[in-house]
Specification:
Elements: H1 8-21, H2 25-34, H3 44-50, H4 60-73, E1 77-81, H5 87-98, E2 103-108, H6 111-123, E3 130-134, H7 137-140, E4 148-153, H8 160-167, E5 171-180, H9 186-196, E6 203-208, E7 214-219
Parallel strand pairs: 1-2, 1-4, 2-3, 4-5
Antiparallel strand pairs: 5-7, 6-7
Helix pairs in contact: 4-5
Protein name: Class I SAM-dependent methyltransferase
Keywords: Methyltransferase, S-adenosyl-L-methionine, Transferase
EC number: 2.1.1.-
Length: 220
């Protein structure tokens, strides 16, 4: 069976989104400089508003890797922190469909981005596989229907470790945890990387040097 990722509808949406996202480099760097370092959770709405028009996407090669990891894991339940306009969500949902079905639960703080992501998922023909929740991820991701096979952390890096700790009881043995932008936001991700690279915490982690830095960990 051909990969859903290569379907005409999926490719059309992804090509359009990647083309639009390629124009935003300076805006993303300005956003990083404005909100660098540790941020208080109370500022989340302010940050989300400032980033409302910025795609902040995974790179095409990262999207392809997410698809491959989800397929290889045979993931039935995927959880994503940071939907944005839905580029990574489309890759994850395509893989879940090709695994025979399942669910992608994703969350986005900015309502405007969530609405755009829903439209993009519908255009790609993948909306039926996705539960998109709007709000604070520390709250929206507490109610899950089963063990997590793959977790993608692709929102604000300062929240990676707090969110991982909330979700740990839901991680299946052998679950994959993927963290994006760990080089671009190195300072903000330091505590998270220290945690998942210490086997005493129940993970084995490895940096993957592509795009803005990826980290891959497995739940032992």
């Amino acid at each position: 069976m051909p990969a859903t990722l290569l379907d005409d509808a999926t490719r059309t949406v992804l090509d359009r989104l990647f083309t639009a996202a390629a124009q935003e480099g300076p805006s993303l760097l300005a956003l990083r400089d404005r909100f660098s370092g540790e941020i208080d959770v109370s500022l989340a709405a302010t940050v989300a508003e400032a980033a409302a028009e910025i795609y902040m996407p995974v790179a095409p090669e990262v999207g392809r890797l997410l698809y491959l990891l989800t397929r290889a894991r045979g993931a039935a339940l995927v959880v994503e922190f940071g939907t944005s306009f839905g580029i990574s969500t489309i890759h994850l949902a395509a893989a879940v469909r090709d695994n025979g079905g399942g669910r992608v639960i994703t969350t986005e703080l900015a309502a405007t981005k969530a609405a755009a992501a829903r439209a993009n998922l519908a255009e790609a023909g993948l909306a039926d596989l996705v539960d998109l929740r709007v709000g604070d991820a520390l709250e929206t991701l507490r109610d899950l229907p089963g063990p997590i096979d793959l977790l993608l952390l692709d929102g604000w890096n300062q929240l990676y470790l707090p969110l991982l700790r909330v979700l740990e009881p839901h991680l299946a043995p052998g679950a994959l945890v993927v963290a994006d932008d760990v080089t671009l936001f190195a300072q903000e991700t330091h505590g998270y990387l220290e945690y998942v690279h210490d086997p005493a915490n129940g993970y084995l982690g490895l940096p993957v040097p592509i795009d803005d830095g990826l980290d891959l960990a497995i739940r032992l």
